[in-house]
Design the sequence.
């Protein structure tokens, strides 16, 4: 069965970076886009960007341009999302999402809580 | 960026009721819209894609309609497990923005 397993919770100081991993299994890794979506406490869903695991091509929301990097390792079917220059507004749960038809998220990782605090 | 505006922000209803949630896009997105359900403390779940196509495994009491800028999600005969927050997401152009969510509460 399709599974996306994310790395564990992180606590970071302002200005630091965080790198979250998402290991995919149960399907052909290179055939589906992976998106990253975050959700701040008590808030809605925010789309951050996507990567195609086959080509490595990425698209990022303008809001995160310059401080986000999505990469993939096809040998271990894992996607990574790194966010730099963290501030308290980046405290959120970060989800990786497999999509079909490019955009529609049919399988979600369990979420990785990231807390940014001095 | 395309702005997605949902209404209402919250709604109270009873088991057995029918409710409709609206999602409006700031520009035309044809039928490129998805609806998600998120229960408290849980991961979102895709209900509808392509504005009106029911995702596999989703009960038929959920339905979606619309095209262009105006879309609706209808839930017929509400069940206890339907009380959750619902989000629309446009799938037309980057960034794939979400609506702010509609919280469905038990009356």
Sequence:
């Amino acid at each position: 069965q399709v599974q996306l397993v994310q790395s564990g919770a992180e606590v970071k100081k302002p200005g630091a970076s965080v790198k979250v991993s998402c290991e995919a299994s149960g399907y052909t890794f290179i055939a589906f886009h992976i998106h990253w979506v975050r959700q701040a406490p008590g808030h809605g869903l925010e789309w951050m960007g996507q990567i195609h695991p086959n080509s490595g091509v990425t698209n990022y929301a303008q809001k995160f341009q310059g401080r986000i990097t999505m990469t993939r390792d096809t040998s271990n079917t894992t996607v990574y999302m790194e966010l730099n220059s963290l501030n308290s507004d980046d405290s959120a749960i970060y989800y990786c999402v497999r999509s079909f038809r490019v955009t529609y998220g049919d399988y979600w990782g369990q979420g990785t809580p990231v807390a940014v605090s001095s | 960026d395309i702005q997605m505006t949902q209404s209402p922000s919250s709604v109270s209803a009873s088991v057995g009721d029918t409710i409709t949630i609206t999602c409006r896009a700031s520009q035309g997105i044809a039928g490129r819209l998805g609806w998600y359900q998120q229960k408290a403390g849980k991961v979102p779940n895709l209900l509808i894609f392509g504005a009106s196509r029911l995702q596999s495994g989703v009960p038929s009491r959920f339905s979606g309609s619309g095209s262009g800028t105006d879309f609706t999600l209808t839930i017929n005969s509400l069940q206890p497990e339907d009380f959750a927050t619902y989000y629309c997401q446009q799938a037309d152009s980057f960034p794939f923005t979400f609506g702010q969510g509609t919280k469905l509460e038990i009356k």
User: Anything to note?
Assistant: The interface with chain B takes residues 35, 37, 44-47, 49-50, 59, 61-63, 95, 100-106, 108-111 of chain A (CB under 8 Å). The mean pLDDT of chain A is 97. The first strand of chain A starts at residue 3 and ends at 6. Chain A is about 0% helix and 55% strand.
